[in-house]
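Q: Hi! First time doing this. I have a protein sequence and I read that you can turn it into a structure. Is that right? Here it is:
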Amino acid sequence: MDTKLLSSEERRTTMPENYIRPESDRPKLSEVSTCEDVPIIDLGLQNRDQVVRQVGDACKDFGFFQVINHGVCSETVERMRQMAEDFFKLPVEEKLKLYSDDPSKTMRLSTSFNVRKEKVHNWRDYLRLHCYPLDRYVPEWPTIPVSFKEVASKYCTEVREFGFRVQELISESLGLEKDYIKKVLRDQGQHMAVNFYPPCPEPELTYGLPGHTDPNALTILLQDAQVAGLQVLKDGKWLAVNPHPNAFVVNIGDQLQALSNGRYKSVWHRAVVNADKARMSVASFLCPADEALISPPKAVIDDGSVALYKDFTYAEYYKKFWSRNLDQEHCLELFKN
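A: Yes, that's right. Below is the predicted 3D structure, encoded as structure tokens:
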């Protein structure tokens, strides 16, 4: 069996041993209910104050929300979906040319999360790309399918603009100037993970990705339109977030939890897998510049509350995040005052 990529095999009928989680750490899918009250925020509303309020409530109560009328062209989104599908259908030998288990590479196809370190693997393959500045990174992107670079570039550019609009709303919801977050995070990096979760013989025994928070500032997820798999932790329970037509899922990462002094939650989330169908998702990450100093603004701690976290740079945080396992305790805990 070629263990390098799950997507290089015929459909499996049995579960390989090194994907089986210990019993105490399984998804318990029968206990998961659907999150019925996912905040759905319409950016097409004329009343900005109302949108700002909705964003603030969602960040505080859920740590994530879905966005419709987001301004990313529907054709751009559909072409990206199709491109992701076409990419993972490529012959194994084509895909293996891009394979690497070195997390420091700025373009790589890999599997699981951190294959070198983990004992139990996750049921996913993913293409990880750095996307900003485009002219630096696009030359190393895949050349097959032939339109990959063009389609993915357009998608990255539109999603980045959308992410900045969301950051402005989050800034205002904290009572800050609308460009506050963007200024503090400086020249933000951008990464993308195109995730492929093949059909899995025993979804109860493994994860696509186990529960984790994102180390970056903001994550923008394009879910599979048909196959659910995203779950979030709310009030101690895992809830399924079903795909909403033409919506992006936006979730708060660790940096915005620290910046808001814990007011906004970096949401614990995970991906589960499906016995019958493959699932695809495209996650885009906006990340502070390495030298950006993460510290709560005066306006957020003026009410007399103390700063929950020590000041740190994003580079310090990211290094710490990658030196541990994905499902260990929250990395922010290591920076508490």
